[in-house]
Design a protein that fits this description.
The complex is a heterodimer. Chain A is an alpha+beta fold. Chain A is built from five helices and eleven strands; from the N terminus they run H-H-H-E-H-H-E-E-E-E-E-E-E-E-E-E. The chains are: A alpha+beta, B mainly alpha.
């Protein structure tokens, strides 16, 4: 990695006036240097002003579809048309074997990590609501348990003064559970009833 | 949105694309001059960001600016690598667009940017124009203008800062020469 500061190349980077190698070096440096990152960010703002002056075109529907496909979770990717026999076999495999494999894998992963897993309680003003979150120290998974829930509650990640909805926990016989595979650590979670936060939990690591 | 994007949330990437789709596509199209290539460019730029571990952080500033620069840089890189400068020059010479244009941005902002650009000293305006509108590298610009690389770098930086200052996005660039 190039440790030299890149503030003097911020404008050239933002304008696209560096060659690919130089541009990649700036990107690499900026990702670890808050000081240069701000300078590059400011230059990007100036280039946006210039770029916004050019003619504006509607993005084609095909591009929308391609980006949508790109960002789809892997298990929702559309399948290609296949023969009926193969389709039946594939369906049997998907319905019968894959969920078992998935659950087995999740179970194994939970058991392997059980020694290191952590638990945090949710604080709530509602005494009938008892909720907790069990989570991996590396932030790779979270399981939220809610007891005394009479309706579906949203689970939100609270960060930077914002609230990002992660999913919902639907109760069965007063108990609701939500499993969240993730790739990053979340320090604060909240349970949300409609738009109202009814409980929150701090997750130390 | 920016915080969720920085946290690499899948939904934030989708929302950011939907919010800035026409801006990003236009940034690519205005460099490449070809609808199909512009589509590929935007798609690939977003795919690169999606696959990168942490391409953006809140400290960097505006997510919109970051995305536009990523797409533009991808477009410029494609044009350079595929030797399409001649095609661009042809397009700039007045070829009809491939599709209808949307109404442009804020006309007041456009006037401010044009005025700021016009007011730049010639020695800053020319290299900035060559970098932004002609997609040339600072090495090419220095060679064409027969000026030292460092001088060209400074002039471009100064000129760009003045454009930002004219619209108040820069707090203190009025002291620039």
């Amino acid at each position: 990695m190039n440790d030299a500061h890149v503030a003097d190349r911020a404008a050239l980077y933002a304008l696209g006036a560096l060659d690919e190698q130089e541009s990649a070096a700036v990107q690499a440096h900026v990702s670890g240097c808050p000081q240069c990152e701000q300078v590059v960010g400011a230059a990007e703002g100036d280039v946006l002003l210039l770029a916004s002056q050019g003619p504006r075109h509607r993005a084609p529907a095909e591009l929308d579809r391609r980006v949508h496909r790109l960002l789809q979770p892997p298990n929702t990717l559309p399948t290609r048309a296949v023969g009926p026999r193969f389709a039946a076999l594939a369906a049997a495999f998907l319905i019968g074997i894959l969920p078992s494999l998935y659950l087995w894998q999740q179970n194994r992963s939970l058991r392997e990590n059980s020694g290191a897993q952590r638990v945090a309680g949710f604080r709530s003003n509602d005494p009938s609501l008892a909720a907790s979150v069990t989570y991996a120290p590396d932030g790779s998974w979270y399981v939220i348990f809610v007891r005394g829930a009479s309706r579906t509650l949203g689970v939100a990640w609270m960060h930077d003064g914002r609230q990002t909805m992660l999913g919902s926990a639907k109760p069965h016989d007063g108990v609701a559970m939500l499993y969240l595979p993730k790739s990053h650590r979340m320090n604060q979670l909240a349970l949300v009833d409609g738009v109202r936060v009814v409980a929150d939990a701090q997750l130390p690591y | 949105l920016a915080a969720a994007f920085a946290a690499h949330e899948r939904s934030a990437f989708g929302l950011a694309y939907r919010r800035y789709a026409s801006l990003l596509y236009s940034a690519a199209y205005n460099v490449l001059g070809n609808a199909e290539e512009a589509q590929d460019c935007v798609h690939d730029a977003i795919a690169k960001l999606w696959r990168a571990p942490a391409p953006y952080s809140i400290q960097r500033g505006s997510l919109r600016s970051f995305l536009v620069v990523c797409v533009r840089n991808e477009a410029i890189s494609r044009r350079r690598s595929q030797g399409r400068r001649a095609r661009l020059e042809q397009r700039l010479a007045g070829l009809a667009p491939e599709h209808d244009e949307l109404p442009g941005g804020d006309p007041i902002e456009r006037d401010l940017v044009r005025n700021a650009f016009a007011k730049l000293p010639e020695d800053q305006r020319t290299p900035l124009r060559m970098a932004f509108y002609e997609g040339k590298t600072h090495v090419e610009i220095a060679s064409e203008l027969k000026a030292p690389l460092g001088t060209i770098k400074s002039r471009i930086s100064l000129g760009l800062r003045k454009i930002g200052a004219a619209l108040g996005t820069r707090e203190n660039a009025s002291d620039a020469r």
